[in-house]
Amino acid sequence: MTTLGLVAGAATERPSLKHRLVRFAEAATTPLLPADYLDLFAPLRPGAELRGRIVSVEPETRDAATIVIKPGADWAGHVPGQYVRIGIDVDGVRQWRAYSLTHGPRADGLISITVKAVPDGKVSNHLVHACPVGSLVHLEQAAGEFVLPENPGKLLFITAGSGVTPVIGMLRNLFPVTDSGVLHLPRSEDHDIVVVHVAPSEPDSIFITNLKSLDESGAIRLVPRYDDVHGLLDVADLAALVPDLAERATYACGPAGLLDALEAHHDARGLELFTEQFRVATVEAGEGGTVSFTQNGAVVEADGGTPILVAAEEAGVLMPSGCRMGICYGCVLPLREGVVRDLRNGEITTAVEGDNVIIQTCINAAAGPCRIDH
Amino acid sequence: MTALQKKPASPIAHLTPEDIEQLGIELDAIRQDILDDRGASDAAYIRKVIDVQRKLELGSRAVLLFSLFPPAWLAGTAGLSVAKILENMEIGHNILHGQWDWMRDPKIHSTTWEWDMATPAEQWKHSHNELHHTYTNVIGKDNDLGYGIMRVDEDQPWHPFFLLQPVWNFVNACFFEYGIAAYDLELGRNLRIPKERRSPEFKAAVQGVLKKIRNQATKDYLVHPLLSVPTGSFLPTLAANFTANVVRNLWSHSIIMCGHFPEGVETFEKRSIDGETRGEWYLRQMLGSANISGSKALHIMSGNLSHQIEHHLFPDLPSNRYAEIAPKVKALFEKYDLNYHTAPLPQQVYSAWHKVVRLSLPNGWLATTNVKNAPQRLKLLYAMTTKGPKVRRAAQARLNQEARRAAVA
What is the pTM of this model? Predict the structure, then answer.
């Protein structure tokens, strides 16, 4: 305990003394670090790995909720429209997902994400329906290029489903909604914004009340398109919905199908388009696949019945290995991206970029293209 | 004990290859049930144990700052001993097995964990997870059998050198973490190689161990005693750390001896594992391990190695689940008419030590010696110890004959 106190007190001393005290504290806690003990008491302190504590879960629609999080002291802030990667334990397993930050920087320092529970979505359903208030989540600093330019001028937002979330973050920042109505700040005066909002139906629309009040106050022009009322949106109709389409820069966020169609549409007309898509096309487990190794550059065709370890060795890759029967964990490597199948029980493990799932190569076979860090 | 394959009546003679494959399928099903059910409560368990362990360690070390006062010394030393045991057994051993890798928490993962032990995690994982767990109780392959310094099998020829093995075993128990480090380095084998021909891997591994030992010793025997200087408790704190390390070493040595050493646990010949199927591997684990029965506290303090049989069948299942699957595993032993070896701690420790002593003596010596013939027997032992191999062979033949006769009678 004493050593920990010394470290805290050292902040005001000369760096060399501080350095010596840190070394001393490390010598007192080896093989762990002082941080491992400090984390027990102050997981959100400065210098800790970036984490956050869930402050509240506010339902938005029947299958969407806004999660308000108190970020750790080292949270560096964000620009509206950016997203944050959140690591949360679902059924005991750490899962990482990216969500748009749905507020501009708030005075209370809290951040929020708005999540729509998608069918079979492990993480989204957990966050919307079973997220324990008070629990810790793991965070990365905000990231993303999908932000407003300095002098935006005339804009068109096209959002579909939960694609509204980064946009609502930008709009809330431009036009804060208070109890007494929408505020019109001087910095937002020059904006001319149209929002084409696509959703299956009105009750399924996240943030529709927000969008409506912005529309009523004249901050934006809202063009809602509900599948059950208007039918599926055809991008060819955009020109009719937004007559001055050609004068506007378009910001779109939604599923891949819509974004692809928009890209073709805008390309053909030479219009400016910025897009954002989170949910990568679902990885389907198949039989076998191409396994590439990031460090040694090897690319191996592996079939669905051969362990990755064996397939790689046969192709001449030097692999770490051990018992070759799945018990010793001597062969584990990080799966950067891809899908593998446990040959013992058929269990599928998937990883998307950034996940870095550690897999046992001696009992897992490729079930699709895989990228392994080795 | 003698290798299973050399026994006149094999305990697995009644099993057909089909039985053994079926046994494997049924064990796989037990494993799968746990995998399907594994989740948030298991994750909460290991985090709780880690939380308790770290707070106990902090608290105990804080108390030891005043260890000049005997009650503080006693409380702090006891707490630190328990914390060190938890750290090695229920936490370190099991995390390094990959039992918690499924949580995908980089802080609780077999690839990142380091423990309060002389041997670095990386080296231990190789010798323990890979060699010991794969080649469990295979003579010549599994160095856990006697750690390369003991006679563990009647088939190993007796030599006077082994008379001291109970002493070594006790010394090894007191400084077990260093014994493990030496064993992970295969120190005996490597030191026989001339210095200039030793592999660079071995040299690097030695450096790794020395660095680890230096760090651990600096913490326990310098840094924390120094922190106690203001209360004049430098030496008491140093003694407390030493005691806690010895207590932890004695405890873990005892638990580990109970896992594979008690009388009746089988060993296997090297050839017997050629082309071994998964079912046969399972069977070897079942026959080569022994459990300790006892309270929940005993199970946690032993890192659930009290469920050694279940651990050896499923080394990567979370340790908190072994107790739950033990009845199912035991039912399979009964179904296939095998001996589920379990007994309370004192009994297993006695049994393991009895074997160490018995094998330190020539085959049959302990069994055929009684109070009446003791002087004559000691004379024989003295002769076997001091005279040449010829005398040893002749005396051994006589002992074997007497032991056979005693067994028939």
Answer: 0.88
